[in-house]
Amino acid sequence: MSVISHDQKQQFEHDGVLVIKGFYDVKREINPIQKHIYEIIGLVAKRHGIPIQRPPFEEGNFDASYLDIIKNDRNLGAEIYDLITQIPSFIRLISSKKSETLFCDLRGTDMAGIGAGSYGIRIDNPHEEQFRSHWHQEFIFQPQSMDGVVFWTPLVPITRDLGPVIVCPGSHQKGLCVYTRHGVHANKSGSYRIGLSNETEVVSAYDHVAPLTEPGDLIIMDFLTIHQSGFNISNRSRWSIQSRFFNFNEPTGIEIGWRASITAGSDVEKIFPENFI
Predict the structure, then answer these.
(1) Taking Cα atoms as reference points, which of 33, 32, 74, 78 lies closest to residue 50?
(2) Residue 268 contacts by C-beta under 8 Å, 6 or more apart in sequence?
(3) 91 located within any domain
(4) CATH code of the domain covering residue 101
(5) Does residue 223 lie within any of the structural domains?
(6) pLDDT digits (tens, 9 = 90+) for 82-93
(7) Which of 26, 132, 178, 224 has the CB geometry, 3.0–4.6 Å to 172, for a possible disulfide?
(8) Is residue 64 part of a domain?
């Protein structure tokens, strides 16, 4: 049984992006993740002897005291970031049968995969540009298969100030772009240095949409849809879950051997030399 309508499927095929309201059950699927994040924040503070005062857990305050902790020691943000991806309820969410069914229905396949290093919980802190994900297509960082879909769902209500994900509808139709490590993002670290060649010219050719979403909502994007993280100018971190499904049967994936993500060690410049300058 399909989990989306025929019209939604057609819209996704045309735009390369679709918002599905209330796809996940907040009480059953989202709240357990938030509760574990709340507890991990408390445990990290305790481990490092950082005194914090927090109200009892509620859906809206799961990240209470997080900003106080990283103000004390920014490195503790990385510790929390690594720990929260080990939450069982998070693993259940990204590998749920409902999500797999959605991908298989969209792509007409029964051979779905979840790439190594292709999932996580992003924490985008206020006014931090160094780790903001700028304009890109997912496939260049997740070279498992050209036929892939990003699943993006927020853990907090996304407002304009928090910086919703910004998408270029229809951009997937032109294929894989050309990239460089020596463009406007060359001052960033690691894979964040990689950006679109002639970025301004490329993204100006499309309309930009920035959906406002709530916990439980799901944004799906084609692996070739150009998008970027919004600018968080609020006083709270933007917490969101990303996972990626890919089609094992797609020819490019077969040819390159369903590579792991760039963060798991894949050298995309060697895999796609014709797409780098």
Answers:
(1) 74
(2) 140, 141, 143, 194, 262, 276
(3) no
(4) 2.60.120.620
(5) yes
(6) 999 999 999 999
(7) 224
(8) no
Cα pseudo-dihedral 51, 163, 79, 149, rounded to 10: 150
Scored b (16 or more CB within 10 A) or e, 195-229 reads: bbeebeebbeeeeeeebebebbbbbbbbbbbbbbb
Residue 97 three-state SS:
helix
The label of the residue with tokens 């019209």 reads 7
Distance of CA 5 to the CA centre of its chain: 24
Handedness of CA 177, 165, 138, 208 (dihedral sign): negative
Buried b (16+ CB within 10 A) or exposed e, 24-52: beeeebbbbbbbbbbebbbebbeeeeeee
CA–CA separation, 3 and 5 (whole Å): 7
Task: Using a pLDDT cut of 70, give the percent of the chain over it.
Answer: 100
- Name the domain count of the chain: 1
In a domain, 154, yes or no: yes
End-to-end CA distance of the chain: 45
What is the enclosing helix (H) or strand (E) of 76?
A: helix 75-84
Contact 42, 48 (CB under 8 A): no
pLDDT tens, 120-158? 999 999 998 888 899 999 999 999 999 999 999 999 999
pLDDT band at 1 (very low <50, low <70, confident <90, very high): low
Q: Of 113-117, 215-219, 227-231, give the lowest mean pLDDT range.
A: 113-117
Percent of the chain predicted with pLDDT > 90: 87
